[in-house]
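In response to reviewer comment 3 from the previous cycle, which asked for concrete evidence that the modeling workflow produces usable outputs, we include below a single protein chain processed end to end. The sequence was submitted unchanged, and the resulting structure tokens are shown without manual editing.
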Amino acid sequence: MKTITYSRYGSPDVLQLEEVKKPEPKHNEVLIKIHVSTVTMGDCELRSLTLPLWTRIPMRVIMGYRRPRRFSPGMEFAGMIEAVGKNVDTFRKGDAVFGISMGTNMEYKCRSGKSAMAIKPDGLSFEEVVTLPVGGLNALHFLRKANIRPGQKVLIIGGGGSIGSYGVQLAKFYGAEVTAIDNSAKLDMLRSIGADHVIDYTKEDFSVNGVKYNTIFDTVYKSSFSKCVNSLTPDGCYLMANTGPRRMLWALWVRWTTRKRTVFTLAGDSAQDLAYLAGLMVSGKIKAIIDRKFSLEQIAAAHKYVEKGLKKGCVVVVHGNQVA
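The workflow returned the following structure tokens.
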């Protein structure tokens, strides 16, 4: 089978397409023929190890200190179950599934029958559901913590990315008045998915317009912590999808000294939440934003595109001879 690997950290050029033996599922596993996967900014950060300093050493311990231990990129997948271990009773051969897992830019993958996977609804394509595990789960996790009520003002920083685009749609689903921040190339897309107001961060500083938000959802780790906290209502909530130790300490200080709330807990993997998000997509409450599609053979080009920071929503990798 074909798989993408890299044996050293570096630029997208370290990525290689290899032929390896097709895996066989254990008694508690299923074998999935992966139809589509994705490339996220997280994949690029792991490949190059351009992570925040406080995470680099732990990641090197996990992945390999000097070089990765034959690591495969990819975090999201959608495909068909081709074989089922004898102890698995949650899935059947022929089920169309999607989920989250490390190392999904490959043609086949074995997963535990109890892992975070959900059945793909008949009304959705593989390309649509594969965008849900990272962006959708993270947006759902954080916005639930904010307990958004109809009519509240929500600001989403980095609204044009995979997490942010689902954040905009879910906040609108909860009845909020949504302002989304990103670069000028993404503003029309943000309007198309429901943003009431958009801000081009290269031309405007959101913190000086006098607007106070009930919730600020920061997905990019580049905005000023103090500006975000000062732009909240007295009992507002600051959601931090990407953060570091220093901001965590500031966040705790804000909790202890004000009525404002701060949230930086990581999203979990939940098959139930994946199914819930897919249900919202079937009903038209949210939709997949797919910027571009690449083949496995084009994986380096996909990484180069994502690293530019200009992708709108998600970048999908189609596993096959043709890019669908």
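Residues 78 and 130 are 5 Å apart (CA to CA). We consider this sufficient to address the reviewer's concern, and the full set will be provided in the supplementary archive.
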